[in-house]
Design brief:
379 residues
Length: 379
Amino acid sequence: MSKLSHITSSIFSSMSQMAKEYNAINLSQGFPDFPVDERLTDLIYKWAKRDIHQYLPMAGLPSLLEKIAALTQKSYNRKINPLTDILITAGATEGIFATIQALANQNEEVIILDPSYDCYETPVLLCNAKPIRIHLNDDFTPNWERIGDAMNSKTRLIIINNPHNPSGRIWTTYDFEKLEHLLDLHPDVLVLSDEVYEYITFENKHISVHHRVKLLEKSIIISSFGKSFHITGWKIGYLIAPEHLMKTIKKVHQFLVFSVNSLAQCVINDYLDVVEIESLSFFYQQKRNYFRNLLQETNFVLLPCEGSYFQLVSYQLLSDETDIDFTIQLVKKYGVAAIPLSPFYSNQKQTRCVRFCFAKENDTLFQSVERLKSLAFNK
């Protein structure tokens, strides 16, 4: 029997395909529809003519590793060794996969906090470990009592996602203190921290595992150039971990992809010299505010959005349908594609919420809300 017999096409692929079929505005998948920075495309032209088209070192371009170390120092005041603590990955997803495959063993348990992104569970199953799916609170904050009750001598990893996809919530100092307390009780548990939206937070700034000294020696932190620089199709990210964990992760990475796209690494290496990554949060905050203001004219209920480029809304005033049925109707009748929340839960929990991506041109957002204004009550 297949280890993945229950896995079907992802909801992201399904909704994007449906959006294309019905010529709907696609606010479902998390990718921007605006142009990338011209400085990036200029650098592509520059590097494409050079002799950089063969394999780079397995861990990554040495100068790029050094610049990531400098960025980490600047962003989080954390000094890391670029030779031992950083790995360039084929997107954040590969970093997550390689980490779980390297560190989780047969019959061990991995805690996943639902609603959760769909790339967490599969690598757990493939190494014959057991995913333990724990619901966040209804406001999408961590439920520390439930998490604590789930931890035991078999727990190997806890996967956290901050800023959180799909909810857009961010962790507080209190949350990290509770996590640290649990790890004091269970010192062998490791933390896999998915922080791909780390540079996209708004009123309250991102608190990273990088900030938490007690966690550093037992944490693997995942970052994404694709998300930060609006280049999701490049599939390039990186992970940071202490050397004693990184050695094993690199073994998996070596036989999974060996090394990552050389052109992309050289381009990003130069781009880091000119880009102001700190401006990213302001750029997306403007997008968020514009989209939220437009949605005020609909019958959706807006939920908090503290980070990422996703806005959750409740349709409880509009319909009693399941979220999948509701999103199908959004595409077919109103020409807007969204993502239902139930596929992010192991038990398909119904919250009557859907997720919109606002990493879009303002005109795209305006046209989508114009269509959503015509939503009829169906209760």
